[in-house]
Amino acid sequence: MNVDHVNAVCRATKTILTNHFGIEVTPLNPSAQKHDFLSNNVSVLLGINGDLSGEIICSIDEQTAINIVSIMMGGLTIEKLDDMGRSAIQEFGNWIAGSTAMELSKQQFVDVTPPVVKEGIVHFQGGKLFITVPLRSTLGLIEVHISLMEQAS
């Protein structure tokens, strides 16, 4: 996995959080998982195809998801994630997908799949290397799990 790809994904996510939500984001120490990892209660999965292939998973706890949805809905008080809230989290994933595609396409051709939202703790397995970059924000902790590999020409 190329550090430039990891940095591009982190830049894209940070840009969305800073520009759309007006918050500061602090990257914390990254870690690597070779075989599997557990997600938080809400995950947004993005597939990457093209010159790169792999996955990006944004994992947040339920309160962070509620905080994100609240801001996306103009500051409304949100008690729990309902269908509208899940739709907002999926749109949040679209924003990250678009920003990520723009960052990565500066170096290679990529296509990002529509986001899939998963609720509940998920045990991701598959034997791929994932780099996890935790991002601390006033909305809560956002863990970005990145697994990207260059396709052979």
UniProtKB/TrEMBL annotation:
Outline the extent of the Chemotaxis phosphatase CheX-like domain.
42-119
* Signal peptide location: none
Q: Which domain of life is it from?
A: Bacteria
* Pfam families found in the cross-reference section: CheX (PF13690)
What InterPro entries does the entry give?
Answer: CheX-like, CheX-like_dom
PANTHER family xrefs: CHEY-P PHOSPHATASE CHEX
According to UniProt, the name of this protein is: Chemotaxis protein CheX
Organism equals: Evansella tamaricis
